[in-house]
Design a protein that fits this description.
Layout lengths: L10 H13 L6 H14 L3 E5 L2 H11 L7 E4 L5 H9 L3 E4 L11 H6 L5 E7 L8 H11 L2 E5 L7 E2 L2 E2 L6 E5 L12 E5 L2 H11 L3 E3 L2 E2 L10 H32 L5 E2 L7 E2 L5 E5 L3 H10 L28 H9 E4 L7 H14 L2
Parallel strand pairs: 2-3, 2-4, 4-5, 5-8
Antiparallel strand pairs: 1-9, 6-7, 6-13, 8-9, 10-11, 12-14, 14-15
Helix pairs in contact: 1-8, 2-8, 3-4, 3-7, 8-11
The chain binds pyridoxal-5'-phosphate.
The site of pyridoxal-5'-phosphate has 14 residues, from helix 3 and helix 4.
């Protein structure tokens, strides 16, 4: 089976982990600092705070910018649940705006139409690694005095107008889960250029402490381990090559599939460099059957995501609703194909041939 994702872990990562184990220092030490510094310079931001997951990063970021009970946060219905869960963890209300059918990201016009006097922030997700229309979102924030928060869990390495995703919002969050563009096992990062936000996040991740046993806030244990950070630092050094490979793989898939009727290949906006976390096509016919047939052909295609978030049973208790027909249609048509950097040209040809064969 050609897998949808496969982390690249080699001798360098093993050596880095071994060095940490030999040091005996296992949590939030020099490896975490070195990983944070490397990401700070890669992204071009003033502050980076490594945490235990992308979910933890979102929770801390929302708390640090002051999202609180009664606030509304406009976000996308087509994302992983962690995005919405972070808003709810602040007892704030997610308000779902519809997406742009080409990029699968928030449509700025729909965002602006969703603003009320309770709106405090826009939580934008760069889905599949394609950057959102950040200028348009930023302009809306300026017009209505809102905060722009970026969920970059899927977009590490993607750029908008030559700047890394995660550098426009007041605060941004990354994930290093194994399927992501780099991994630390579990892990996440907060990026910001605001010293006060960075300071709150740093204390919150470690039980609210500034100094040992001096607790200034009601905090958490969202620390990153030294083992995770050591892996992450090696992974980050390899990221530029992997991004090139992802892009080349995406181009090969597009070349092989773009003429086929019944398929829409991914769109890339001219001001963006796609991070190709996922290569997501649309199919016009019976997507679930196509996915099943692809499994039979040895290709692990996946559906991100089969439901809009406001349709998830867990959220009914908060009477969360939404009406986003474009996102709802996407949940029936999207299909992500393997694009990760471990694939060779033959694997990609196998994917292309299989897709051609199963779509009737
Ligand atoms: C868009 C998005 N946001 C947030 C997360 C949460 O990240 P994590 O799984 O590291 O908690 C993920 C990833 O899984 C994601 O894809």
């Amino acid at each position: 089976m050609i897998p949808i994702s496969k982390p690249m872990l080699g001798d360098e990562e093993i050596a880095a982990v071994t060095a940490v184990l030999r040091s005996g220092n296992l949590v939030q030490g020099s490896s975490v600092t070195a990983f944070e510094t490397a990401l700070q310079s890669y992204l071009g931001v003033s502050h980076t705070i490594a945490v235990s997951s992308g979910t933890a990063a979102l929770q801390l970021a929302l708390e640090a910018v002051g999202i609180k009970e009664g606030d509304e946060v406009i976000t996308t219905p087509l994302s992983f649940a962690a995005t919405t869960n972070a808003i709810l963890s602040r007892r704030a209300m997610p308000v779902f705006a519809d997406i742009d059918p080409r990029t699968f990201n928030l449509d700025p016009k729909k965002v602006e139409a969703s603003i009320t006097d309770k709106t405090r922030a826009i939580l934008a997700v760069h889905l599949f690694g394609h950057p959102c229309d950040l200028d348009a979102l930023q302009q809306i924030c300026t017009r209505h005095d809102l905060l722009l928060i970026e969920d970059c869990a899927q977009s590490l390495g993607g750029t908008y107008k030559r700047k890394q995703t995660g550098t426009k919002g007041i605060v941004s969050c990354f994930s290093f889960y194994p399927s992501k563009n780099i991994t630390t096992g579990e892990g996440g990062l907060i990026a910001t250029s605001e010293e006060s936000i960075a300071d709150i996040c740093r204390t919150l991740r470690n039980q609210g402490q500034r100094k040992p046993y001096e607790h200034h806030r009601l905090g958490f244990n969202f620390r990153m381990t030294e083992i995770a950070a050591a892996i992450g630092k090696v992974q980050l050094s390899r990221l530029p090559d992997w991004l090139k490979q992802r892009k080349a793989n995406a181009e090969q898939l597009t070349k092989g599939l773009q003429q086929r009727t019944g398929i829409t290949v991914p769109f890339v906006s001219p001001e963006s460099e796609h991070a190709w976390h996922q290569y997501t096509i649309r199919v016009s016919e019976d997507r679930d059957k196509i996915q099943e047939r692809l499994k039979g052909e040895g290709v692990d295609a996946r559906v991100y995501y089969p439901r809009v978030l406001y349709d998830q049973p867990v959220y009914k208790q908060w009477m969360i609703s939404g009406s986003c027909p474009i996102a709802e249609r996407a949940t029936k048509e999207v299909l992500s194909l393997p694009v990760h950097p471990q694939l060779c040209a033959d694997d990609l040809d196998t994917v292309i041939t299989a897709v051609q064969r199963v779509i009737v």
